[in-house]
Amino acid sequence: MASPKISLKDLHSFHFNDRELFMRLVMILYRDPSESLLVMALWFWLQNHAHFTNAVVKISKTPNLVVHSLSKEASTCLKCLQSKVPPMANPGGQDMPLTTLITDRNISFQIVYQTRFTMISGIKHYLNNVCSIVFADILLQLFPGRSRILLNSTFGAITVVPRTLDCIIPTKNGPLDSFWFLNPVVPVDDRTLFLTFSKGYPVTEADVIELFNSKYRDCIEDIHMVPSTTLDHSLYARMVVRDVSTVDQILSSSPIAKFRINGKHVWARKYERRDQHF
To answer: PANTHER family under this entry (predicted)?
Structure first.
């Protein structure tokens, strides 16, 4: 069966409020375009995955001064996601008070940090599969001649392709209200952890599987034990889990998590590909 299709013109109509809000951010409020892309992607994620119902519509109905303040709160939330240090508890209880007022939903930076890798992966999905298409013509006005827009080391870059309004774009789900797949396939790198072991205390692949599958319910999709050039056992491994939320569970807001299996230590941290350039 052929994939359902939709024209770019129809997409622009469907995302009219989103496009208008993005243009207000970058052309009226003169907010940084790269940061504004991240802000829009964060708002999309909150709306579709954190029960911030109609968040973008509610934000778009506010005056420019309020939109500016809301985008500053969103930028602070994004900085929290990218930080290596967990946030301190807010004695006042509200980390994004204006956002809470407008959307009727509270958001805690401590909760955000506990789900940071899930959120980062989701935001990247909206950047690459929504913003790069729906805002492409606006971005090409802001960055003429550029097809790749760098964001930062956490969110990478997006590719912008010029398209005519009658361009047909294949969809995965058909109807407009489900055009943007809400449970996308998460890239392997986003679901990969880097494991280290102690020299002289051999940890086997079976040990790793027993340790993590018993703690996190059959979570392992793949594991690669990196051979040592000088020892008869591995000192490192890359482990891919089935769901990005498991990365958050394993690390539990820490950069490194420590485990013990059969008297041997295992350290886990988020895998970062070394050949990335920004």
So the answer is: F13O11.17 PROTEIN, OS07G0274300 PROTEIN
Tokens standing for 206?
């079976």
Bridge partners (DSSP) listed for residue 261? 264
Is-contact 123 155, C-beta < 8 A? yes
Beta bridge mates, 3: none
CB 269 within 8 A of CB 193: yes
Mean pLDDT along residues 22-43:
97
What pLDDT sits at residue 4?
A: 65
Residue 254's pLDDT is: 95
Q: Is the pLDDT of residue 67 over 80?
A: yes
Tokens of 240: 């891919």
pLDDT interval class at 178 (50, 70, 90): very low
Q: What's residue 98's pLDDT? A: 96
Q: State whether the Cα torsion 244-245-249-253 is positive or negative.
A: positive
> What's the Cα-to-Cα distance from 165 to each of 116, 130, 133, 137, 148, rounded to whole Å?
36, 16, 11, 10, 21
The highest-level CATH class for domain 188-270 is alpha beta
Going from N- to C-terminal start, the domains of the chain cover: 6-179, 188-270
| CA pair distance 186, 239, nearest whole angstrom | 15
Q: Does the pLDDT value for residue 269 go beyond 90?
A: yes
